[in-house]
Amino acid sequence: MKYIFKTTTAIIFLLALFNMPGISGAAEAQKPANTRVKQSKEEALTPGGQYKRHDMERPRPPVRDPGPPSEKEFAKPPADAVVLFDGRDLSRWERKPGTKDADKSPEPKWKIENGYIEIVPKSGSITTKDKFGDCQIHIEWATPEKVDPEMKGQKRGNSGVFLPGHNEIQVLDSYQNDTYPDGQAAAIYGQYPPLVNVCRKPGEWQSYDITLEQPRFDEKHKLTHPCRITVIHNGITVQDHVELGGGATEGTLGLQDHTNPVRYRNIWIRKLNSGKE
Ligand code: MG
After folding, report:
1. Left if phi > 0, otherwise alpha if psi is -120 to 50, otherwise beta: which for 81?
2. What is the pLDDT of residue 13?
3. Least confident of 97-101, 177-181, 227-231
4. Which protein residues have their CB within 5 A of the ion that is ligand 1?
5. DSSP string across the chain
6. What are the beta bridge partners of residue 171?
7. Residue 269 φ then ψ, to 5°
8. 159 Cα: distance to centroid of ligand 1 (angstroms)
9. pLDDT tens, 180-225?
10. Please, how many CA atoms are within 13 Å of residue 223, restricted to the half-sphere of its CB?
């Protein structure tokens, strides 16, 4: 069991590195002191050991129609939420540390218009200035409406939500766009495909509601409680209390620039105390 945890944490670390356009930025997100993460040269199998990372032989999650969004899905933030983007400014964000020239020019370069932000390709990923532990995250996103048929798989509407201290929840145009299942929309990137594919059409607004329970470590840095992640995509549960073996107990929330002009709006977070020691 101990061996499995060690192997899993090493895999998580490596996966986070290799999914990033800028490796140095990913390392920054994964280096908090209170982790047991170690690198390994072992072959990366996804949790459960059946499939290799990005295995195209892996079964595709069934496609389901989430239906039109309800009013609740795109509701205003609750009163106790920390509003990270309300349609007007990115004052709570900065360019991801480690991104080229981010130290000299930390202000995000992404476009703000009509109540949303739009990624300016190659301007770099962004992160919150604040760190978060246990939390509930709401975020709305839309991939570009105009689809270039030459851009397939990971090249179509790719971005991502980097959870505080952990891996990426993939943002991708997964509407009639095949890719490896552990890299489609709402996957825990490189590990867990979503239970179902409920992606809306390109250009339509979609939502993620994510609950993150951070791991706990004892005084010897031994994991006592795994990280747990639940993701609701367009009102449908697609990741259900998924356990990850390591990571950090807190970190910044990040949004990925993967060179596609994906849009985001109505981003908020609620701090939780999940009642663990
Ligand atoms: Mg991505």
Report:
1. beta
2. 44
3. 97-101
4. 158, 160, 256, 258
5. -HHHHHHHHHHHHHHHHHT-SSHHHHHHHT--SS-------S--BPTTSSSBTT-TTSPPPPB----SPPTTTTPPPPTT-EEEE-SS--TTEEEPTTSTTTTT--S---EEETTEEE--TTS--EEEEEEESSEEEEEEEE--SS--TT--GGGSS-EEEE-TTS-EEEE---SS----GGGSTT-BTTTB--SSB----TTS-EEEEEEEEPPEE-TT--EEE-EEEEEEETTEEEEEEEEES---S-EEEEE---SS--EEEEEEEEE---S--
6. 159
7. -140, 140
8. 4
9. 999 999 999 999 999 999 999 999 999 999 999 999 999 998 999 9
10. 24
Ligand 1 mean position to 276 CA, how many Å?
31
Ligand 1 centroid to residue 122 C-alpha, Å? 13
Please give the domain boundaries of the chain with CATH numbers for all domains: 63-271 (2.60.120.560)
Distances (CA, A) of 35 to 6, 225, 235, 260: 11, 12, 33, 32
Pairing status of strand 223-225 against strand 206-213 = unpaired
Phi, psi (rounded to 5 degrees) for 122: 70, 10
Beta bridge pairs of residue 225:
216
Residue 251: beta bridge partners? 132
- State the pLDDT confidence band at 98, using cuts at 50, 70 and 90: confident
Which residues are within 8 A (CB) of 4 and not within 5 positions of it... i.e. 6 or more apart? 245
Residue 102 Cα to ligand 1 midpoint, Å, equals 20
So what's the pLDDT on residue 273? 78
Largest CA-CA distance found in the chain, in angstroms, rounded: 53
d(CA 124, CA 104) in angstroms, rounded, equals 14
Alpha-carbon distance of 138 to 231, in angstroms, equals 10
